[in-house]
C-alpha cells in the first residue's frame, strides 16, 4: 500500500497535494482498497464552496455508498471530468488519474491539522489492528 | 461478537486470495478477483459459488408431505420424487417467514433449502407447525452447497458426470458421482442463468469444488463470490429475504403469486394470500432501470410527479447494462411496465423506467 511522502492526509482517508494556494484532493490507496470496485462517483460543480470536513461528493462501490469529505475549505476550481465515466480510475491510480477535485484554499492554515505520510501510515496500521 | 461460522471451503477460498464478508453469522467469500469480472463470467461462461451457509431442514415421516403442504404456499402434490420447487413459508398474516426450495427426496422425505439468516427461525417455525409424526431435523451441517451457474454450466457438469444430465429439466434433480463422493443436484440457481446446485457431504466439498473448477477452467469457469451473486440476482429480478421479502410483505405483493397455490386447500397464510390473489394488492414489486447516472439503494424513495409512490428494496450498477438498476415496491396503480418514475438519490431525483423482470435476460 502506498503513502506518498509529498501528500497530506485526513482521518477520513482523503489526500491533499498542495501547489501554491491550490489543493488537489482524492481518496487514499487504503480507502479505495477498503471500498472495493468503485462504480459511481458524484463530484461538486466548479465554483461551489466547500468547508473542511463537510461532504463534497460521493463514491459508490458495488456494495457501499460513502461520502467524501473536504480536507480543506475553499472554492472548487476544477473537477476530474474523467471520473463519472471511468470511476475505476480511483481504484487503479488513487493518487494520480483518480484525483477528484482542486480547491482554491480559503484558509491554508487548515493544512496543519492534516497528517503527514508517516502519521497517516501509522493511523492506518492502527485501524487494521 | 460471536465467532463466525466457516464453510468447509474456507481454507481453499483463503488460499485463492478471496476477500471475505460477514453474512448471517458466516464468513463467506465476497469476491476472488473483481465482482464485475465474476458477474460477467457467469453471464458469458460459468461461475462456481460456495453457498454452504444456506440452511437445510429435513422432514421425514408418514406425515412429512402433509406438513410440507400445510407449511408452504406452493403445491407439493406437484412434486414427484427427485424434484424441487420454489415455495414460501408464510405467517397467518401472509407475511413471509422465508422463501425456499422444497426438494422431494422420497415419498416421505423432504429437504427444505432455506436462507442462512433464517435457518434457526425456520427450524423453530417448522417444528412448531409440523404434524406429530414428522421428524424435523437440522441438516445444515450435513451438506455443503455449491452452485455452478452460467450458459456453460451444463456442458461442464455433463463432461464430469455424464451426458444424461442434459435431459434433466429446470428444477429436476439427480444424484451423481463427483470428486469421489455422491451429490444431490438440482437444475436450479439464483443468477437467471442455466445451472446446477450440488448438495454434497460437508467434508467432501473441497474435492467437489476442485474437480468442478479444474474441469470447467478451459470453458471459462471461475470461482464467484457473494458480491456477484447479489448483482446477478438483482439483474435477474429475483427477491432476496431482508430486501424484497420480510414478515411485512406477502408473496403476492412480491410477484410470487405463481408460487401460492390456493387450489391445494388451506395452508399457513392461505386466507390472506388467496384473497390477495383474487382482489389484488396495494403495492407491487417492480424492476427499475435508471436512465440517468446513479445507483438506487435499499430505502431510497420512488417518486412520480412529486408524489411518493414507493421504496427501493435493492439496487446496484448493472454490470451487463452499465446503468443503475433496482427492485422496489410501488403503488399498484403505478406498477406498470414502461412507466417513468424517479428515484430520490440523496438530493437528486433521478429518472427511471419500470421494466419487466428479469431486468437482464440470458443471451444478451
How are the elements arranged and paired?
The complex is a heterodimer of chains A (129) and B (364).
Chain A: E1 8-9, E2 14-19, E3 22-27, H1 29-35, E4 38-42, E5 49-50, E6 55-61, E7 65-69, E8 74-79, H2 89-92, E9 101-105, H3 117-128
Antiparallel strand pairs in A: 1-2, 2-3, 3-9, 4-6, 5-8, 6-7, 8-9
Chain B: H1 10-15, E1 19-23, E2 26-31, H2 35-44, E3 46-50, E4 55-60, H3 64-71, E5 83-90, E6 96-106, E7 109-114, H4 119-129, E8 135-138, E9 143-149, H5 153-161, E10 173-178, E11 181-186, E12 195-201, H6 205-216, E13 221-224, H7 226-235, H8 270-279, E14 283-290, E15 301-304, E16 307-317, E17 324-331, E18 340-345, E19 348-355
Parallel strand pairs in B: 3-13
Antiparallel strand pairs in B: 1-2, 3-9, 4-7, 4-8, 5-6, 6-7, 9-12, 10-11, 11-12, 14-17, 14-19, 15-16, 15-18, 16-17, 18-19
Helix pairs in contact in B: 2-7, 5-6
Structural class of chain B comes to alpha+beta
Multimer state: heterodimer
- The number of helical runs of chain B is 8
Strand content of chain A: 25-35%
Rounded mean pLDDT score of chain A: 95
CATH topology of the largest domain in chain B: Gyrase A, domain 2
Largest sheet of chain B: 6 strands, mixed
Largest sheet of chain A: 6 strands, antiparallel
Query: Could you name the CATH homologous superfamily of chain A?
Result: RNA polymerase II/Efflux pump adaptor protein, barrel-sandwich hybrid domain
Q: Give the CATH level 1 class of chain A.
A: Mainly Beta
Strand residues, percent of chain B: 25-35%
**Shape by Cα distribution of chain B:** globular
